[in-house]
């Protein structure tokens, strides 16, 4: 065991741990969610600490050997080492102070070890005097959230691109399959199955572009702003050099905000990003819902498409297979929507010069980014790629439905079309048969008007082919 002391007194810690007394108190104070800080946030904190250590070393504020040891320790954390030394709960009071103390202590004790000392001997490297030099939680933590969010945002945008591409493949594959379109779950007018998938692809394409563009708003950071954004206790030359170092380390275009006070106290950018993630979640869950509905059955539902079978669906009903991947995407989407509310509440709860709720914002935003990326990858691999169409069922529903009558209305008139609909609804004859029996159109004209390609594009189906764009067949019969 080793003994450390702080403002409140002394505590014993296991000799082997890299964290210190501040982290120990945070562990005791915040046994809340059972979830630790997101690994991307820990990595981002290490990046920021490395940038600060390089700037302090290069400017002569840290001895070279000490600066090098802190930098090497930070690089190890960036590579995923020592993650078990970050036990602080994701939700914590103090605006992220516990997270900052945790990284300071881990880097200090690892640097001490690299310099040949014993953990806890802060005469060699001090967590606050050296690792935290020219810094405050209030500039380190918001900067790290932005770095982590950008790092996770890019894979989400790339996953959107892959999902859009796969949906476009299905659009092409199903381009010639006609089916009934439905509005309010009732028969509407014919549509191509490929056209349905084209709408899915277009929606995800919008999400991809919005998410790609929003990175720009995350690039402004307040590194060097210290406590309230004024930069007190941070040398001006340190502020500029630390931001330059962070750009190179993180390999992203982060830059010192013109108004660091604004960045320190306002968290609206996270609400903006979360709002776009919520929009993506809305589109994903709409697609997932549609796929579940279109694949329903397989005997007593729509059964217009088949989803890949991934696992047995029931412990009591043999042979049942459920749409588990779309269901998982639904749940991810609901979680993202819930996270958006938490982020909104956290961001609006800032007071005066600081937002103390940033740990809540960080936890929910980084979780949303992570699960959306993971969910889309699963969706593509285990669902979208393997979707097949039941062409006979799709075409059969078109023939049975009196939704076809909409295409005939310009040719036979609304009143006669209504008579056809009543006749079809009241018996077992389809639209073609009833129209022929009533003598409203002949077989050749019906073939033209009810051609799938005619009914699924703008204009009056069959008008140009039947009479060169002149009056409708119904109008000619009436005269």
In brief:
It is built from 20 helices and eight strands. It is mainly alpha-helical.
Distance between the termini: 104 Å
Strand order of the largest sheet: 1-2
Which CATH architecture of the largest domain?
Answer: Up-down Bundle
CATH topology of the largest domain: Fumarase C, Chain A, domain 2
Level-1 CATH class name of the largest domain: Mainly Alpha
The total beta strand count reads: 8
Q: Based on CA inertia axes, which overall geometry fits?
A: elongated
**Integer-rounded radius of gyration:** 31 Å
- The CATH homologous superfamily of the largest domain corresponds to Fumarase/aspartase (Central domain)
Approximate strand percentage: 5-15%
Number of helices: 20
Mean pLDDT value: 94
Number of domains: 3
Kindly describe this structure.
The structure is a single chain. This protein has 479 residues and is mainly α. The chain contains 20 helices and 8 strands. The chain has 3 domains: 2-133, Fumarase/aspartase (N-terminal domain) (Fumarase C, Chain B, domain 1, Orthogonal Bundle), CATH 1.10.275.10; 139-391, Fumarase C, Chain A, domain 2 (Up-down Bundle), CATH 1.20.200.10; 401-478, Ribonucleotide Reductase Protein R1, domain 1 (Orthogonal Bundle), CATH 1.10.40.30. Helix content is 60%, strand content 6%. β5 (220-221), α8 and β6 (255-256) form a beta-alpha-beta unit. The longest helix is centred in the first third of the chain and has 37 residues, at 137-173. Mean pLDDT is 94; it is low at 469-479.
